[in-house]
């Protein structure tokens, strides 16, 4: 398998999110032109990416519930911009242990089937970081949803988790 | 102003006063006997009275003819 | 002796609930004041007199006067209406008692209404049936005791006229705001009319007409006699005919002149009316244009702000801002480190493989094609290694090594089979493609704070525009005196156009007036020329009496004309004099002198009032209070300049609403100089907080030093409408 093939396999996957966060996502994402009273991101993948990085900063992953309680959305390859997806991959691949490998070189000798498993692990990692991120966001939302009317809420929350992490290091 | 005042006012007009030599006693004796008053005084009195009584111009003129000695 | 109102009594009339006795005002000569806050029956008392004089009432909702019949149910006291049941009736009326030197009179107007239904609001007209309207007048000799009723309708109306004479009523019976109209300085006719009223000049005008007619007749007789006695009757006839023709032309020209004068005064009138609106028109247009511009700018600013706001959160994911990369400063290094490890392992494997399969092949860590072939050739040629700057002579160990380097195989086909999967470019692509994000990690914080600043700048801009709009709005409201500031600019332009049109017409009429007057002069000259010729043509046998009669009547009619003009002019001067006397007294407690009033006759025979200062410069634009004072001064002058004194009471409803304390004081001092009795209804001196509900001006008036004879206070309790009634308390 070559690089292009590996890339395609990853990019064609559609990550999933837990249905319990459906309402939260609806409130904070503006797909199409449906505005809510809260500050919003645009398409779903944006809030998803955001949740992912929250999870990454907090170093938390939470497994998704069973498949029926989850929903998929847009495949990675269609997320925009392209550079951002690569950035996400950079984040993942700098955390080998999370991906279940100790060295990238291990991938070079894998059989196709194993590569597929690996790809599934990559996606699962994304999903679990995001899931943890959503959980955090949900708790902030429940605690005080009025802050979600402030223009810079997302920047503030991201800053909060970063500072939290610094403190605990 | 009432009629007497009006008559006085008219007779005091500078043209009239000068031309007809209206004196103060003329003005003071307006209520006196008409026959002894100057012609101009008689005519003015008559016109003012006729106007007060809403007499027509024709009738008034006919009355004046006597004073004016015309027929 | 003047008419003096003794009492006014009301029965179930608006808020005056109860019988006449319960709602009576006793008035005296001099100043009588009724103080009431708005809604406490002040205007209703005025309505009582409106009913007596005109059978009309002022509808406070529609702000117009309406017939008593159409307002009957509304007029009845709500409390009274509420008390009765179906089938019972209520009486509503007003009663005035006044006297002159000989008699005392009573005038009563009333009606009764029966409740016929309870459905709906008790104030509904349908719930009541009006039974009859009564108008009763009685009179008693002041020496005697008993009132005798008057039955004759004409006589009754005569008596109402004695209360305040009809043709002068507008000068002593009015509502505050009407002062504007009684003597509206912009309606030049109104001063002329006033002068005519007080000089009785119409009598003189009729006299003048009579004298013209008489002169005409005398002339006819003179001409007749002349013709009888003339030597050349034909020529005389011709000349007489010619004179007739000229006289006719003269009459026609005079008629035209009247028309031009009328046009002139109408055009001028219109321009005055528009002038007030104009003064502000240009400014209004300017402000409106400005407003339009500001609104546009505000809309843009808001749009920009919205757009900016919408775009903010996209900045997390936009490679130009890359906010999502915040806090991941270690990431690129960590990735690079792993990539390095990866590449090292790959290189190692490759080397081992090569060593195993191509032991002879040079294994080196140098990447392929480095140094390039040209450099290697040069080094071989020079016999010198340029990298470490040492000799590498031909066929030496060093030289051979360089040769081996050159001869390295440049492709790794065999190596391709080394790995099952070659993912090097996968990782390289990750590093390369994520550049937009990795490159900005360190500047995210700054980018966010720039963005916050930018947002605040947007907000500040919007706030600033809002403030400017607000002050623009206030300025416009001031000028327009209305709240509808978004009405079109069209109106303003129309006003300006109309104004210019009116000025143009006035100027045109002026020109025509002048030319017409010239024509008249010409004609008069011609006529007198013909008269001279006529004299020569008349016979010497004409009895002198005819000539004398004609001359006498001519002189007399001229004198009458002069008298008319002088009378008018004198009265105008007198009016001006008296106006200034009153005006001076009215403003004596105010620091500003307010100028001197000057009347002058215009081209179109109307009268203009100018206000000039000591140097004869026209002053304009004084405060509303001053304007009203001027008008009151002229109104008072109209009354007092008449000479014979005004024999009727003044009854006015709040002419003082725009006056400050200084004015109120001087007003009450001046009024008795003009009116033997005045009844004034005001609210200015009401003070809900004070003990006796009067403010300090009011208390001044209450004291024994002032000229005030009686002072009443109307109050209304703060209870539901059906229980509301006016309570009258006599304070003085």
What does this structure look like?
The complex is a heterotrimer of chains A (169), B (71) and C (732). With 169 residues, chain A is mainly alpha-helical. Chain A has one domain (3-168). Chain A contains eight helices and two strands. In chain A, strands 1-2 form a two-stranded antiparallel sheet. Chain A is globular and about 50 Å long. The termini of chain A are far apart. The model of chain A has no long low-confidence stretch (mean pLDDT 87). Chain B is mainly alpha-helical and 71 residues long. Chain B has one domain. Helix content of chain B is 66%, strand content 0%. The termini of chain B are far apart. Among the domains of chain C are: 4-164, P-loop containing nucleotide triphosphate hydrolases (Rossmann fold); 231-322 and 440-537, Helix Hairpins (Orthogonal Bundle), CATH 1.10.287. Chain C has helices spanning 42-54, 68-75, 78-83, 153-163, 169-172, 179-182, 189-199, 201-229, 233-312, 331-357, 373-382, 397-406, 413-416, 424-433, 435-438, 444-480, 489-537, 544-586, 624-641, 661-670, 696-702; strands at 4-11, 24-26, 30-36, 56-59, 64-67, 89-99, 103-115, 128-141, 148-150, 173-175, 384-385, 390-391, 596-601, 607-612, 650-653, 677-682, 708-716, 726-730. With 732 residues, chain C is of the alpha+beta class. Chain C starts with a strand and ends with a strand. Chain C is elongated, with a radius of gyration of 51 Å. The interface between A and C is large, with 45 and 46 residues.
Q: How many beta-strand runs of chain B?
A: 0
- Unreliable spans of chain A are none
How do the strands line up in the largest sheet of chain A?
1-2
- Compute the number of structural domains of chain B: 1
Distance between the termini of chain B: 34 Å
Précis, in short:
Chain B has helices spanning 3-11, 14-20, 24-28, 39-52, 57-68. With 71 residues, chain B is mostly helical. In chain C, strands 2-1-6-7-8-9 form a 6-stranded antiparallel beta sheet, with helices on one face. A 6-stranded mixed beta sheet of chain C has the order 10-15-16-3-17-18.
């Amino acid at each position: 398998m070559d690089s292009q093939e590996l890339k395609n396999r990853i990019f064609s996957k559609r990550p999933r999110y837990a249905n319990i966060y459906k309402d939260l996502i609806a409130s904070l994402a503006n797909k199409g032109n449906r505005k809510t009273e809260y500050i919003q991101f645009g398409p779903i993948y944006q809030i998803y990416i955001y949740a992912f990085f929250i999870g990454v900063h907090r170093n938390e992953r939470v497994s998704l519930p069973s498949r029926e309680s989850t929903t998929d959305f847009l495949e990675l390859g269609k997320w925009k911009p392209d550079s951002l997806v690569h950035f996400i991959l950079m984040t993942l691949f700098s955390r080998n242990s999370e991906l279940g490998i100790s060295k990238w070189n291990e991938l070079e000798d894998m059989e196709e089937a194993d590569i597929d498993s690996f790809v599934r692990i990559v996606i699962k990692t994304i999903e679990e970081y995001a899931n943890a991120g959503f959980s955090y966001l949900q708790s902030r939302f429940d605690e005080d949803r009025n802050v979600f009317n402030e223009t810079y809420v997302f920047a503030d929350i991201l800053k909060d988790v970063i500072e939290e992490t610094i403190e605990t290091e | 102003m009432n009629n007497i005042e009006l008559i006085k006012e008219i007779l005091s007009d500078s043209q009239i006063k000068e031309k007809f030599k209206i004196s103060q006693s003329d003005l003071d004796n307006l209520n006196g006997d008409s026959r002894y008053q100057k012609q101009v005084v008689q005519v003015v009195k008559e016109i003012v009275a006729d106007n007060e009584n809403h007499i027509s111009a024709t009738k008034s003129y006919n009355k004046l003819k006597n004073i004016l000695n015309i027929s | 002796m003047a008419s003096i109102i003794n009492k006014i009594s009301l029965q179930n009339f608006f808020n005056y609930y109860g019988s006449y006795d319960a709602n009576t005002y006793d008035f005296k000569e001099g100043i009588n004041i009724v103080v009431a806050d708005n809604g406490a029956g002040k205007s209703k008392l005025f309505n009582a007199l409106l009913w007596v004089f005109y059978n009309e009432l002022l509808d406070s909702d529609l702000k117009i006067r309406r017939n008593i019949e159409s307002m009957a149910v509304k007029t009845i006291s709500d409390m009274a209406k509420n008390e009765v049941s179906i089938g019972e009736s209520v009486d509503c009326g007003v009663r005035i008692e006044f006297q002159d030197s000989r008699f005392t009179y009573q005038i009563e107007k009333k009606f009764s209404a029966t409740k016929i239904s309870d459905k709906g609001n008790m104030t509904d007209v349908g719930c009541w049936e009006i039974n009859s309207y009564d108008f009763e007048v009685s009179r008693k000799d002041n020496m005697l005791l008993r009132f005798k009723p008057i039955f004759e309708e004409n006589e009754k109306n005569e008596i109402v006229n004695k209360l305040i004479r009809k043709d002068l009523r507008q000068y002593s019976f009015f509502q505050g705001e009407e002062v504007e109209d009684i003597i509206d300085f912009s309606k030049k006719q109104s001063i002329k009319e006033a002068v005519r009223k007080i000089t009785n000049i119409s009598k003189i005008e009729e006299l003048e007409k009579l004298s013209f007619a008489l002169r005409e007749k005398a002339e006819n007789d003179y001409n007749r006699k002349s013709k009888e006695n003339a030597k050349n009757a034909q020529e005389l006839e011709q000349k007489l005919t010619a004179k007739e023709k000229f006289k006719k032309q003269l009459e026609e020209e005079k008629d035209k002149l009247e028309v031009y004068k009328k046009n002139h005064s109408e055009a001028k009138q219109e321009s005055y009316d528009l002038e007030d609106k104009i003064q502000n028109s240009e400014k209004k247009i300017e402000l409106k244009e400005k407003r339009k511009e500001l609104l546009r700018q505000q809309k843009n600013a808001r749009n920009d702000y919205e757009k900016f706001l919408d775009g903010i959160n996209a900045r997390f994911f936009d490679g130009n801002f890359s906010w999502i990369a915040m806090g991941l400063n270690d990431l690129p290094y960590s990735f690079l480190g792993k990539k390095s490890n990866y590449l090292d392992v790959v290189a190692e494997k490759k080397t081992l493989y090569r060593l195993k399969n191509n032991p002879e092949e040079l294994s080196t860590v140098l990447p392929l094609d480095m140094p390039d072939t040209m450099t290697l050739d040069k080094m071989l040629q020079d016999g010198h290694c340029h990298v470490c700057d040492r000799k590498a002579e031909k066929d030496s160990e060093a030289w051979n090594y360089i040769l081996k380097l050159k001869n390295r195989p440049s492709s790794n086909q065999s190596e391709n089979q080394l790995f099952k999967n070659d993912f090097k470019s996968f990782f390289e692509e990750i590093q390369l493609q994520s550049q937009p994000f990795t490159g900005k990690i360190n500047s995210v914080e700054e980018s966010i704070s720039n963005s916050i600043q930018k947002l605040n700048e947007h907000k500040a801009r919007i706030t600033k525009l809002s403030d400017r709009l607000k002050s623009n709005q206030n300025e416009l409201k001031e000028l327009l005196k209305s709240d509808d500031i978004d009405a079109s600019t069209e109106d303003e332009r129309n006003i300006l156009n109309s104004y210019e049109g009116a000025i143009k017409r006035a100027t045109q009429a002026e020109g025509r007036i002048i030319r017409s007057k010239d024509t008249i002069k010409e004609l008069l000259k011609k006529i007198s020329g013909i008269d001279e010729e006529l004299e020569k043509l008349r016979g010497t046998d004409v009895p002198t009496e005819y000539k004398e009669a004609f001359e006498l009547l001519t002189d007399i009619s001229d004198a009458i004309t002069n008298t008319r003009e002088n009378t008018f002019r004198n009265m105008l001067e007198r009016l001006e004099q008296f106006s200034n006397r009153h005006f001076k007294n009215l403003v004596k407690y105010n620091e500003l002198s307010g100028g001197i009033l000057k009347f002058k006759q215009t081209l179109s025979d109307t009268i203009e009032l100018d206000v000039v200062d000591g140097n004869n410069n026209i002053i304009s634009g004084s405060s509303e209070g001053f304007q009203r004072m001027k008008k009151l001064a002229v109104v008072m002058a109209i009354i007092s300049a008449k000479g014979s004194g005004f024999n009727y009471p003044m009854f006015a409803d709040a002419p003082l609403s725009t006056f400050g304390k200084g004015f109120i004081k001087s007003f009450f001092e001046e009024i008795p100089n003009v009116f033997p009795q005045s009844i004034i209804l005001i609210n200015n001196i009401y003070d809900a907080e004070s003990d006796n509900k009067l403010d300090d001006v009011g208390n001044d008036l209450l004291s024994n030093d002032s000229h005030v004879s009686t002072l009443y206070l109307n109050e209304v309790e703060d209870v539901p409408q059906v229980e509301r009634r006016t309570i009258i308390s006599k304070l003085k």
